[in-house]
Fold:
Amino acid sequence: MRFQIRNYLVLCLALLLVSYTVAQHSTPSLQTYSIDVEGGQATLLVTPSGQSLLVDAGWPGYSGRDADRILAAANAAGVQRIDYLLITHYHRDHVGGVPQLADRIKIGTFIDHGPNLENSEQTNTGYADYQAVLAKSGAKHVIARPGDRIPLTGLDVVVLTAAGQHISTILPGGGQNTSCGSDPLPPDDPSENAVSLGILVTYGNFHFLDLGDLTKKKELGLMCPNNPIGRVDVFLVSHHGLDQSNSKALVDGVRPRVALVNNGPHKGGSPEAWQTVHQSQGLEDLWQLHYAMDSDTAHNSNENMIANLNDSEGNYLKLVAQTDGSFTITNSRNNYRKNYPPLSAESR
Structure:
């Protein structure tokens, strides 16, 4: 009898564990993959219903390295096509990989800020190659403006900045920005960085901010005197963690719980920007795609939170968020994972 009871208890425990595992895997969630494109950007978002939004496509060349890494992340997420490809701006580390990507996977809709606004060799070339893909693909093309929304089921994706303009309304959670006035007046930036298409992604109580390579003067225009965004859970550190971006008015205004830096081994992750983000009130962790080799140990995160310690490893950071505002981040290099519970209403 004792043996039967013990076996029954073991069976019950096993069934509970199976039920818990199934429940965990079946819980609707937002997935994001910060893909290593060596100091460019490629961020893949996958909705609970399986729709996909890719922000930027990395560099051209390198035998299609960045397109292949994006495709690997898409395969890991179970994505068979890119429903929306959003191009923040026309620098080659953001738009350059589009032709190679379009050869590998179907793209449903292209979203951008409109014509190229920087007269330079790299943007003229990148924009021309991008336009050629648009013409060849026959896909839908959308020019986004501040206040527009990208129609992803289960998410609210609002355009904050585009073509040098910014949203004029204050979103829920926004208000006066007490961090204004803490930055010296930045210079004008005539480059495509300043016209980046930036978005706020909201999934229930979870908020993810990506402003592309928006530079400081435009950040101040967006964030002062009022903060239209409110607090965010995860901030994709602007401009790969360079000091031309990431003003205190922005970083301290949105008060991220977690920051992700899409830097390369020798690009981005500057000590000044790293310190601004690291010391912002409420920040719990700062994750990096690469160890910043041109910085120092004091301005790099713990190695568990760095996806790539050397050149060209290709590891990514995966984030899984729930509607209650909780989320996890996993480092594909070492499978290190950290859970972030939901914030209380008072903390928001």
